[in-house]
């Protein structure tokens, strides 16, 4: 995938490195020239300038990008970047970090944001998602009040060989898709899970632990930590 990371601070740098290591084409847009040089020295592709400017995003490949991650240090900038990404460049998926929880209500589809992630947990969550190292991840709070959760199926899971219908999922939880070999496939009731599958589910805000217990009974999900 072609991914643009807007903001090369602590979160942006680590996210870009993790996504790059996962085999994606990653371009960082960073306004600070000195920081941009540091990122380039670390092997990242960097465009120097503000991601709030359409021409900078276009230079970064916004016309054919698959994902944009807005993670500057300012919520207002992340909103502007998200609107540009979705409305102007029609980038299919836009993820934004939120510094001030009081602003979270703004980070929805009206501003072009598919998933808003707390800046405190964004670092660990995005890196674990990109590398597939986590078992159960709370990806985002949806505008409807529900939560989007991902579970990665490893050899430690009890799910391989079982179908969606055979799982004892929490009430109100729907498996929306299964990503297998890098491609999404419909999660019909007869689909059998395999090791390596990534399960995307929509659930209640408190459903993450119960989903984890369904796939990994007797273990605890990893807890995000702030840096």
Jot down its keywords.
single chain, disordered C terminus, alpha/beta, 227 residues, globular
Please characterize this protein's 3D structure.
The chain has helices spanning 10-21, 33-41, 54-59, 75-88, 119-131, 208-215; strands spanning 2-6, 25-30, 45-48, 67-70, 93-98, 115-118, 136-141, 147-152, 174-180, 183-185, 198-203. The protein has a six-stranded parallel beta sheet with strand order 3-2-1-4-5-6, with helices on both faces. It is 27% helix and 25% strand.
Rounded average pLDDT: 83
Structural class: alpha/beta
Low-pLDDT segments: 221-227
Specify Rg, calculated over alpha carbons. Answer: 18 Å
Q: Compute the number of helices.
A: 6
Write the element-wise H/E pattern from the N-terminal end onward. EHEHEHEHEEHEEEEEH
What is the general shape?
globular
Strand content: 25-35%
What's the oligomerization state?
A: single chain
Q: How many beta strands in the DSSP annotation? A: 11
Largest sheet, if any?
A: 6 strands, parallel
Helix content: 25-40%
What is the spatial order of strands in the main beta sheet? 3-2-1-4-5-6
Structure at a glance:
The protein has 227 residues and is α/β, with parallel strands linked by helices.
List the helices and strands and how they pair.
Elements: E1 2-6, H1 10-21, E2 25-30, H2 33-41, E3 45-48, H3 54-59, E4 67-70, H4 75-88, E5 93-98, E6 115-118, H5 119-131, E7 136-141, E8 147-152, E9 174-180, E10 183-185, E11 198-203, H6 208-215
Parallel strand pairs: 1-2, 1-4, 2-3, 4-5, 5-6
Antiparallel strand pairs: 7-8, 8-11, 9-10, 9-11
Helix pairs in contact: 1-5
């Amino acid at each position: 995938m072609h991914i643009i990371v807007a903001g090369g601070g602590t979160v942006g740098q680590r996210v870009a490195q993790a996504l790059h290591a996962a085999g994606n084409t990653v371009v960082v847009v960073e306004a600070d020239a000195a920081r941009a040089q540091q990122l380039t020295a670390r092997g990242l592709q960097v465009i120097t300038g503000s991601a709030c400017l359409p021409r900078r995003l276009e230079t970064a490949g916004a016309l054919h990008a698959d994902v944009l991650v807005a993670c500057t240090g300012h919520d207002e900038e992340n909103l502007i970047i998200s609107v540009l990404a979705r409305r102007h460049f029609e980038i299919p998926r836009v993820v934004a970090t939120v510094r001030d929880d009081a602003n979270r209500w703004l980070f929805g589809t009206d501003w072009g944001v598919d998933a808003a992630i707390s800046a405190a947990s964004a670092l660990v969550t995005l890196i674990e998602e990109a590398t597939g190292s986590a078992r159960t991840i709370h990806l985002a709070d949806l505008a409807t009040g529900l939560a989007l959760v991902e579970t990665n199926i490893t050899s430690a899971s009890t799910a391989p060989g079982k179908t969606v219908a055979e799982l004892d999922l929490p009430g109100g939880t729907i498996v929306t898709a299964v990503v297998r070999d890098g491609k999404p496939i419909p999660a019909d009731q007869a689909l059998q899970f395999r090791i390596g599958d990534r399960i995307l589910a929509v659930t209640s805000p408190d459903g993450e632990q119960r989903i984890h217990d369904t796939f990994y009974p007797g273990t605890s999900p990893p807890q995000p930590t702030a840096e």
